[in-house]
Backbone:
């Protein structure tokens, strides 16, 4: 692995950032890339969209807690549990 990155055993998330601080385009490739990309990628993306649409159509989501803190990792996400109340419409 050391032929590709320096200090491969050390946790260095900044190695995936460009020089200007932007995330490198190949930092996360959940479906692969190029000729060997997952054939089910489009199907998986559509399934996620359908699931979210059904949840939003059937439930009203409410959040009545303290403001969220965010952790900036490979994706921008809440730092801690996200406590939503789902109320059936």
Residues:
């Amino acid at each position: 692995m050391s032929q590709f990155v320096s200090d491969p055993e050390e946790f260095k998330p900044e190695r995936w950032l460009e020089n200007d601080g932007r995330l490198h385009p190949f930092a996360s490739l959940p479906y692969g890339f190029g000729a060997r990309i997952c054939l089910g990628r489009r199907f998986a993306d559509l399934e996620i969209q359908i699931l979210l649409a059904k949840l939003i159509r059937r439930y009203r989501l409410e959040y009545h807690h303290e403001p969220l803190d965010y952790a900036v990792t490979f994706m921008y996400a809440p730092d801690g549990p996200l406590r939503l109340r789902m109320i059936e419409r």
In short: Residues 41-58 form the longest helix (18 residues). The longest strand covers residues 59-62.
